[in-house]
């Protein structure tokens, strides 16, 4: 990777890391499109490893605020959702599936914007976890469903709980990639040289978090969920 390419990718990782460490998700949504253009070989292995590192940092920082029960129920849905996503990819055109799922997220954003706030009880958490698993497997963007169901939690709890959920999901993905031989020496070396970018983004999130009161954080999560769904639909339609 050339110096210019490294700078572009590193800047994307810094911004994505800051965003995810502030609202609980966003690494894949913001960084993946840029990384895919500059260095496709880093997708998905390197990016997932960087996301896992970031979630570890956030989980440690926000460990006292994590909703372990909520995370557990979301993971109950995440596992079958991941399997369902893989099966749907094999049965349906990837583009159609991505657009359909992004449409579901946009529908949830619209309902939320007009006052509907899903209660994070067991059923909704399992459904959100399953949707996140399907969406993440099919498109690499699995954050919006969880952000919508956890939007009314406190700042630290949102960041910590989302990070705990995605940490387990990232480790599962890394394990699967390792088993299939998709993680090699190049993946590990790219992860190593980009680790400082994750650290910088994480440090930048500290002052950002002080600016995000619960209301701002809620609307940031809703807005970024909508942007992610729109970008996903645009990406798939442009590929037609």
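-> sequence recovered:
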């Amino acid at each position: 990777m050339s110096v210019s390419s490294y700078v572009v990718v590193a800047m994307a990782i810094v911004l994505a890391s800051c965003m995810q460490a502030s609202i609980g998700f966003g690494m894949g949504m913001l960084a993946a499109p840029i990384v895919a253009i500059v260095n496709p070989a880093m997708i998905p292995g390197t990016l997932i490893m960087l996301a896992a590192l970031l979630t570890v940092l956030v989980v440690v920082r926000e460990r006292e605020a994590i909703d372990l029960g909520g995370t557990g129920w979301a993971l109950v849905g995440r596992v079958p959702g991941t399997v369902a996503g893989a099966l749907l990819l094999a049965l349906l055109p990837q583009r159609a599936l991505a657009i359909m799922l992004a449409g579901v997220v946009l529908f949830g954003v619209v309902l939320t914007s007009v006052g509907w706030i899903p209660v994070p009880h067991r059923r909704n958490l399992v459904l959100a976890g399953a949707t996140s698993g399907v969406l993440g497997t099919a498109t690499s963007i699995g954050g919006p469903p969880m952000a919508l169901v956890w939007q009314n939690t406190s700042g630290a709890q949102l960041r910590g709980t989302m990070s705990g959920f995605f940490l387990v999901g990232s480790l599962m993905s890394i394990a699967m990639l390792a088993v299939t031989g998709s993680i090699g020496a190049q993946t590990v070396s790219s992860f190593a040289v980009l680790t400082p970018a994750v650290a910088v983004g994480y440090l930048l999130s500290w002052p950002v978090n002080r600016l995000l009161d619960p209301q701002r954080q809620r609307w940031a999560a809703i807005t970024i969920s909508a942007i992610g769904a729109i970008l996903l639909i645009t990406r798939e339609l442009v590929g037609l």
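The chain is about 80% helix and 0% strand.
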